[in-house]
Amino acid sequence: MRIEKATHALALCIMVVWLLWIGQTIMLPLVYAIIALYLIFGVTTALCRIPFLDRIPKTLLRLLVLLAITVGFLVLFIFIGSSVARVVDALPGYERNFDVLIGKIAHTFGFDGTPSWERVRDSTIGQIDVFVILMPFLNGLKDLGVTLFLVSIYAVFVFAERIHFSEKLERAIGDAGKARKIMSLLDRINDRVGQYLLVKTLINLILGTLSFVVMYVIGIEFALFWAVLIGVLNYIPYIGSWIAVVFPVLLSLVQSASIELALITLVSLITVQVYIGNFLEPRLMGRAFNLSPLVVLVSLAFWGALWNIAGAVLAIPFTVSLMIVLAELPATRPIVIMLSARGQI
């Protein structure tokens, strides 16, 4: 009997994963809309603590926050698109500095004899078409614009649906006690995920600001764009912002053909990353990030493989929500304790 139940559960999990994979185009905007509502509720709760804003009705305040987030997404998309175009336009101007830098490296290691460095370059790096490499990224930005538009539309309707959700849930179940228990569970998910997203967004703003100051002082071109990229990719725990650091470091290399400047940029940005990741983030995140590092990595690998970058960004909210649900079941509660960071749920 247990083997039969385990087989049915495994088959159900496989079917759900398959549906998530083939339906990502439809589901992603809806999921992002729900995540956006978590952020809206978290921001609204924080704003209600301000003396003047606590007099504004919560529904109106949430609509204003939704409008502000929608406008913010639009401005962010336009800024990223224009910045990518400027970076692409500037690439040919870095070619000479890149040749000088590689020439120095070739001379240092004794590669400037026969065959000549120019011939080696033309047969290796010279074969790389930068525009071919960047086209998928540019197409991804175009798709991101469509996704953000759908997210805004979905968020409005999900927000309207939430007003009468508890009443409809009680009528659907037919048991007021069970309906209240489910709503209490959903409220805890809302609080935990909303707190995580709100604090993570604040941390990303601080990280992006400090990174911008560092790059601006050093003199890195497109410093604001790279700072925004570092802040956005920091939604992917552990690896996101570190990947983003690679771009300004490489730009500092080709911008000045100076290895020293690249090392200064690398050390400065790593210092900011270490401060945010090891000191500031643990103090601000608190219980909202009560996950074992191993669980985070496995979650990133799973959702990243399923939904690419979007899945990596959503991995933590999904995992936190799943752990809250599993913590309510006596059979799975020990598993949740093992998956938590400190054994507390």
Describe the structure concisely:
The protein is mostly helical and 345 residues long.
Q: How does this structure look, described?
A:
The protein has helices at residues 2-22, 24-47, 58-90, 95-108, 117-123, 130-163, 165-173, 176-218, 223-233, 240-256, 259-285, 293-327, 333-339. With 345 residues, the protein is mostly helical. It has a domain at 1-163. Helix 2 (24-47) packs across helix 12 and helix 3 (58-90) packs antiparallel against helix 6 (130-163). The model has no long low-confidence stretch (mean pLDDT 76).
Q: Runs with pLDDT <50, length 5+?
A: none
Order of helices and strands: HHHHHHHHHHHHH
Estimated share of beta-strand residues: under 5%
Largest sheet: none
Number of strands: 0
| Helical run tally | 13
Average pLDDT, all residues: 76
Distance between the termini: 31 Å
- Based on CA atoms alone, the radius of gyration comes out at 24 Å
- The best one-word shape is globular
> How much helix is in the residues?
over 70%
Query: From the helix content, strand content and strand pairing, which structural class follows?
Result: mainly alpha
